[in-house]
């Protein structure tokens, strides 16, 4: 391998370690279990969404609806528990169903109605942003709220559900690791194994790289594409469940940044280890990278409003890595 | 015949890198005459057209138009000088979202001296003049995207003719037209011929050629291999000049097969085509040959389950065989190395190993989890078997030569045992040594399956097959055992004409 190959392959990882080393020296308390856990926690929901969208990127598609699927799931969870007064299990099942159904509809629009992926999922995003506001006439959902018909909603978030957002597992130190981080890690390993080590994941890559070749090799291309959107939808709804559990209410104004952050993480992932293609490991590293950078900058007193700018810079640099340097970038 | 040539090409050369595509082509076009240019894929037709139309720079030789030197640097210059080309892809010649009138006058919308403001009335007036001259009966306000393919073609040609060309080049204009639509095009061409336009018509369709040609020029391997201008035209001679044998190859020993693997009866693969019946035997290598566009790929795809036949039955090893998808065909043991590996074979994101294992992942996995060691061993075995030149099974496909890429495609499907192994144009873009390797491998491993090749080049059929079938107009018109083949009869069948000898 030439120097250039090395730079492409390990450049981003080296950058990541360099960043950690820099913050370790420059920012007090950056190197501590609590700080590390905080970084993971800050990227957990984004990371889960990013892993989902990675599946659609693998089949050569894109899912713009993940952010609104997550917020719709959050609102649905709140509605089910607060207004319909159901328990946590029902709320979780409803959320997952919403994710799966939206994914199926996205896949159907793209595969059978031949709507281009960006447009189909953009339309779905719009639809969901509006839909989640209709049942409560645009209000956020919390215990004791007044419903449009004048009645008062008396249900409340179940303890089991809130635990998803608040419980911490012991890990050497008591009460260290939040549930959301465990969910992120488990899902990351699952999707990584699925994409790298199963024939289904392999075929999804083949579909994304050359659809006709995959079809002539006997792959049910349409089914794989639809499945990718279902995975994306379900992952997004899991993100929504974690969001609802963290907030403890159905907040109409939250989750605005989820889509962009998740897509950025997945695209940064292209640059990790010179993959030049969507991959679960890269996506996880991409999400972490953004989390570390923001945590470090925050601890060095960088103002909050610079955050999006920093994320944007990281994304652009990563994309240059992928497309210009490796010279085999295919979207 | 008309006297002097309007357009004359002398000793035209062109190389890409070390690869010489045109080796001194000389060609005359006469006013009021249709010259048909025939040539197999890779003969250099499109390169010639691109040089003449100003897309490529020539590597040597001269071109004259009406006794003046003709050296276009851009397509626009060629058009202005009066040499107009209608390319094969119809949609390249029209802008689908604009109306017919704007399309007809599109070339007047840019360039020096054109008013900045768009004047719809003037455009419509000019367009009407163009349409009338051509006898074009299409609503000028219709959007091109709403028109049929044939109408679009007419618009593309009319647009080309708005320049009042001296020379018109039509590159396979009927390849996507029905025969009724083609008739309209022929009427138009007749009219242009009367108006004294010199026409170069590139086609593989013998019916077009019979209908239109005043002269036929055959091309092969970058040179003109035959000019036919005495009536009646010698169509078989032209096909022979285009496809005929250039070198004497070692004769193969043709084998016979005792046991039928696939029996096809009454299969119809095209509207109005005669039904196909054939039997492929165990251990036998059969080549189906014929010109481009006679339905070879359609037949291959029908056998592989990705295209539905209009009628007919297939029997495989005694059982009824009616695949509805590629995966059903694969399950039945029918494998296809598809034509054009870049678009329908190679997965660019995968290395050799993963390209080889692609169709058989199910057989190489356990509960969905891939057996990577088996996958690697298979790839290594196949690389060895087909002597693929590479550093390791982890090499990217883009690092391989065309011949080795094709070997990977063949290796992919030879990794498991087939009942029927179909290869559609397996030697396209493959160097001679790789082609020999593949052919030898196919013959050596032929026992236990039926092997079916689709090739346009006769040489390829003659050097690999035990039996040669000839296709024309979506059906099979001839059969030859590959031992002392009657080449005259074979060429006549390819050319689709009445047979000289009793069949």
UniProtKB/TrEMBL annotation, chain A:
InterPro entries: ABC_transp_permease. Keywords: Cell membrane, Membrane, Transmembrane, Transmembrane helix. GO terms for molecular function: transmembrane transporter activity. The chain crosses the membrane at residues 7-25, 37-59, 66-84, 90-111, 118-135, 171-195, 226-245, 257-273, 280-297, 309-327. It is a multi-pass membrane protein. This is Monosaccharide ABC transporter membrane protein, CUT2 family. One of its GO terms (cellular component) is plasma membrane. It is found in: Cell membrane. It holds the Pfam family BPD_transp_2.
């Amino acid at each position: 391998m030439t120097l250039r190959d090395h730079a492409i392959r390990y450049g981003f990882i080296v950058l990541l370690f360099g960043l950690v080393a820099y913050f370790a020296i420059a920012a007090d308390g950056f190197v501590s279990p609590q700080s590390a856990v905080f970084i993971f926690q800050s990227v957990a929901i984004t990371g889960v969404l990013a892993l989902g969208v990675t599946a659609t990127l693998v089949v050569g598609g894109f899912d713009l609806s993940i952010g609104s699927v997550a917020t719709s799931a959050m609102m649905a969870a709140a509605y089910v528990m607060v207004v319909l007064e159901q328990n946590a299990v029902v709320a979780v099942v409803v959320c997952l169903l919403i994710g799966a159904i939206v994914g199926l509809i996205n896949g159907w629009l793209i595969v059978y109605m031949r709507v281009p992926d960006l447009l189909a999922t953009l339309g779905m995003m719009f639809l969901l942003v509006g839909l989640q506001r209709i049942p409560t006439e645009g209000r956020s959902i919390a215990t004791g709220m007044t419903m449009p018909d004048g009645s008062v909603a008396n249900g409340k978030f179940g303890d089991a559900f809130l635990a998803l957002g608040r419980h911490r597992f012991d890990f050497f130190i008591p009460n260290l690791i939040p549930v959301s981080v465990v969910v992120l890690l488990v899902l990351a390993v699952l999707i990584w194994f699925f994409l790298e080590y199963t024939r289904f994941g392999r075929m999804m890559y083949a579909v994304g790289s050359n659809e006709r070749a995959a079809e002539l090799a006997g792959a049910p291309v349409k089914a794989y594409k639809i499945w990718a959107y279902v995975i994306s939808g379900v992952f997004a709804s899991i993100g929504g469940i974690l969001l609802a559990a963290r907030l403890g209410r159905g907040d109409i104004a939250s989750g605005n940044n989820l889509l962009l952050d998740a897509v950025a993480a997945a695209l940064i992932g292209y640059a990790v280890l010179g993959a030049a293609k969507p991959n679960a490991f890269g996506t996880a590293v991409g999400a972490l990278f953004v989390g570390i950078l923001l945590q470090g900058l925050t601890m060095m007193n960088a103002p909050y409003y610079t955050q999006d700018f920093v994320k944007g810079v990281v994304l652009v640099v990563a994309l240059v890595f992928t497309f210009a340097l490796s010279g085999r970038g295919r979207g | 015949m008309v006297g002097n040539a309007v357009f004359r090409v002398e000793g035209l050369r062109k190389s890409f890198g070390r690869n010489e595509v045109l080796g001194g082509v000389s060609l005359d076009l006469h006013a009021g005459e249709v010259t048909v240019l025939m040539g197999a894929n890779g003969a250099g037709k499109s390169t010639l057209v691109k040089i003449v139309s100003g897309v490529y720079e020539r590597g040597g030789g001269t071109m004259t138009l009406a006794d003046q030197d003709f050296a276009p640097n851009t397509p626009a210059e060629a058009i202005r000088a009066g040499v107009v080309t209608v390319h094969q892809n119809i949609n390249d010649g029209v802008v689908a979202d604009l109306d017919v009138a704007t399309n007809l006058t599109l070339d007047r919308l840019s360039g020096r001296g054109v008013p900045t403001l768009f004047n719809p009335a003037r455009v419509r007036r000019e367009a009407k003049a163009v349409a009338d001259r051509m006898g074009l009966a299409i609503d000028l306000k219709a959007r091109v995207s709403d028109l049929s393919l044939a109408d679009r073609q007419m618009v593309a040609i009319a647009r080309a003719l708005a320049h009042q060309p001296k020379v018109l080049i039509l590159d396979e204009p009927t390849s996507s037209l029905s025969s009724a639509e083609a008739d309209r095009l022929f009427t138009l061409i007749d009219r242009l011929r009367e108006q004294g336009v010199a026409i170069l018509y590139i086609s593989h369709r013998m019916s077009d050629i019979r209908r239109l040609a005043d002269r036929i020029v055959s091309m092969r391997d970058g040179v003109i291999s035959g000019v036919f201008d005495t009536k009646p035209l010698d169509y078989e001679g032209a096909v022979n000049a285009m496809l005929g044998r250039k070198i004497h190859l070692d004769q193969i020993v043709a084998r016979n097969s005792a046991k039928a693997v696939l029996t096809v009866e009454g299969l119809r693969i095209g509207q109005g085509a005669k039904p196909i019946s054939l039997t492929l035997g165990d251990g036998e290598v059969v080549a189906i040959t014929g010109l481009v566009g006679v339905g070879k790929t359609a037949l291959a795809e029908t056998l592989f389950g990705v295209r539905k036949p209009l009628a007919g039955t297939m029997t495989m090893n005694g059982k009824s065989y009616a695949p509805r998808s590629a995966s059903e065909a694969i399950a039945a043991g029918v494998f296809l190395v598809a034509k054009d590996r870049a678009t329908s074979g190679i997965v660019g994101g995968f290395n050799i190993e993963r390209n080889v294992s692609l169709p058989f992942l199910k057989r190489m996995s356990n509960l969905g989890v891939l057996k990577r060691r088996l996958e690697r061993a298979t790839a290594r075995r196949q690389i060895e078997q087909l002597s693929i030149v590479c550093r390791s099974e982890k090499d990217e496909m883009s690092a391989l030569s065309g011949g080795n890429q094709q070997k990977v495609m063949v290796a992919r499907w030879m990794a498991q045992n087939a009942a029927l192994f179909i290869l559609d144009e397996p030697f396209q873009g493959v160097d001679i040594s790789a082609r020999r390797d593949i052919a030898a491998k196919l013959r050596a491993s032929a026992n236990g399956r039926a092997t079916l090749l689709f090739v346009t080049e006769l040489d390829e059929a003659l050097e690999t097959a035990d039996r040669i079938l000839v296709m024309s107009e979506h059906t099979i018109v001839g059969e030859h055992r590959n031992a002392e083949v009657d080449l005259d009869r074979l060429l006549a069948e390819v050319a689709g004409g009445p047979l000289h000898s009793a069949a």
